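Example 3.
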Amino acid sequence: TQLLEQSPQFLSIQEGENLTVYCNSSSVFSSLQWYRQEPGEGPVLLVTVVTGGEVKKLKRLTFQFGDARKDSSLHITAAQPGDTGLYLCAGGGNTDKLIFGTGTRLQVFP
Amino acid sequence: EAGVAQSPRYKIIEKRQSVAFWCNPISGHATLYWYQQILGQGPKLLIQFQNNGVVDDSQLPKDRFSAERLKGVDSTLKIQPAKLEDSAVYLCASSFRRPANTGELFFGEGSRLTVL
């Protein structure tokens, strides 16, 4: 069974701080997606990474796929209250299944 | 472009009662997913359809859950009889590209079920 563990589970920070969220697995994935989910809404895709070592930037968010394609990280620079939400990584394998991680709940206070 | 539509948004039932959720995916999306999300956790895949055929239902509790996608468009998810541990948000998603490992999943707002 493929599992994706995210850490930390909860993160509460002040506006302007930096943070990193980790997504780890013992399984290899062919692709890794990151979603953000706000209360009462469905998850929304932020990025997809497919190559080991790949780094993608989305404004203040930096995503990295591990060289072995077993892990990923999300770094947010100068967090804003609008970044508040549940961050989910999701791994795709050789099948059509997309396995979601355990989630990281981020709260950014003004 | 209209998004994924789900109904009802909220449902409260007693244990052992039945409930049904409806999903209308984005037009042209062949793949449809039902996920169960316990509060604060990541979504767990219940069932995945490709057109009107089932691709994966390995984590669907088949003794009480059923799902269908007639004509390869709308889908319904039914729970009968409901248990307390079924309290969760049921998310429907659809995607255009197959396989899902490179395609974006578009989610509905979810149906929140409370079982008393």
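Residues 38 and 85 of chain A are 5 Å apart (CA to CA). Chain A has a mean pLDDT of 93.
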